[in-house]
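Sync notes, pocket subgroup
Present: LS, DG
LS reminded everyone that the earlier model was apo-only. Rerun requested with flavin-adenine dinucleotide included. Inputs:
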Amino acid sequence: MSLPPILVWFRQDLRLTDNPALAEASASGHPILPLYILDDEDAGAWKMGGASRWWLHHSLKSLAKDLAQQGGNLLVRSGAAETVLAEVISETGAVGLYWNRRYEPWATDRDARLKTRWKDAGLDVRSFNGALLREPWTVVGKNGSTPKVYTPYWRALNALGEPADPAGQPAPAHYAAITGEHGDIDTILPLPSAPDWAGGLRDTWNPGEAGAHDRLAVFLDSAMGSYKDARNFPATPGVSRLSPHLHHGEISPNRIWHATRTKLASLGAAAAGVEGSAEHFLKELVWREFSHALLHNNPSLPETPLRSEFEAFPWIDDDDGLRAWQRGQTGYPIVDAGMRELWHTGYMHNRVRMIAASFLIKDLMIHWRHGEAWFWDTLVDADLASNAASWQWVAGCGADAAPFFRIFNPVLQGEKFDPNGEYVRRWVPEIARLPDRVLHKPWDAPALVLREAGITLGETYPVPIVDHAMARDRALSAFKSLKSDAAAA
Ligand code: FAD
């Protein structure tokens, strides 16, 4: 007689290798029923944005194909997980429910309820860590609590020793046959049409586990060695671009960690020259962990400033400014290039994310939550923890944040990190013919130079929507008023 199935509930772990929930289910000897639930209803205000949905569509297709090669059928449903699970368990007679943990507050609350409910109903319910090197509650400093700033967090994480070795693909599992409706990815997660805005995403990315592994291999072979310096230059292929693969769990951070170490070891004597770069890369990976710890310890991180005095910051309501920023029409080329890269590819280079975010928050004095929401909708790597923590970091109201008074000058940042203008010329082609010396500040170009470059400021490219020097002073005095209010209170 065949055994009843165990449900493996895929969430942000869309891979077969190094997937603890899948491996444990496989080891149980029960047939496995792989399930994905599009749980918009549970996510409330943090429903997945458009770019993430595009990614998820392709990632699920890739997972379904990989499972099919092993004889598995991915069941895809949408709705509140509580309802969908009840239906699937009753339809299939499943006796177990395994998943890898998520860390969004809405997901942890829901999962705790589900665990109690189905354990009480007699199911074997288990959850695992499939997304982080170390789960937030395990990384503690000498005083026993989570470090509130990054460097002690990095040290505390390292003090736990090397993260677990990544496991390979579980031994070929026995998959349960699905008798009812499979669920159709095209219907549940339709691709954009009329208009189809996803052409740039298609040209840029290869979602799925194989794409993630390819991306890691390319990075280790061609960019890891120079990461420390090259990571700041957006025109250079100096970063890994693994963030969307990591967010959707197509690759585990443990695999990335150990592959980096292995690559370094394979270089022999040459490793000495690139150790600093490899460590820097691992440190960035741990910023992701630190962001998850911040969210775990501060569930309102996406909505509320960690430094409460920022609640009183005199933000400006400026719909026109916000729209110009979103569309890459601010008149500051490096900001506009970043915002257009984001719209076109669902990604923006980290250096430019910082510049664009600083511009919105400090030059326009628009609340960081508007930027956070736009990134949420447009990034393929939109991640509740990393996005919220990073916006608060730039705004100066977060843990270990850049101080508010450190205001990026978009011209100097452009000149320093895009010195040959390659990045700006790619994304803001209407000013591409400007010479380097004025590319990052077209308003400084003499009339003849503008004419020769085919530019009419205010018509073919905007005049700056705000004067940076004025905006800087305005932001600093707003910040000072905040401090004096806090002192007077
Ligand atoms: P690499 O430089 O190759 O780094 C490797 C990995 O480390 C990344 O894939 C990522 O998982 C992690 N990482 C690197 N930097 C950071 C960081 N500062 N914070 C957290 N993790 C980091 N990252 C997201 O994954 N999702 C987001 O929604 C997100 N929103 C951001 C919003 C703002 C305003 C800013 C300034 C940064 C944001 N980041 C976010 C962090 C960072 O910009 C991206 O993780 C990084 O650009 C991804 O590119 P990469 O994979 O090439 O990174």
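DG: The first helix runs from residue 20 to 27.
LS: The pocket of flavin-adenine dinucleotide is lined by residues 231, 239-243, 246-247, 284-285, 287-288, 291, 350, 353-354, 357, 375, 379, 381-383, 386-387, 390-391, 394 (CB under 6 Å).
Action: DG to write up.
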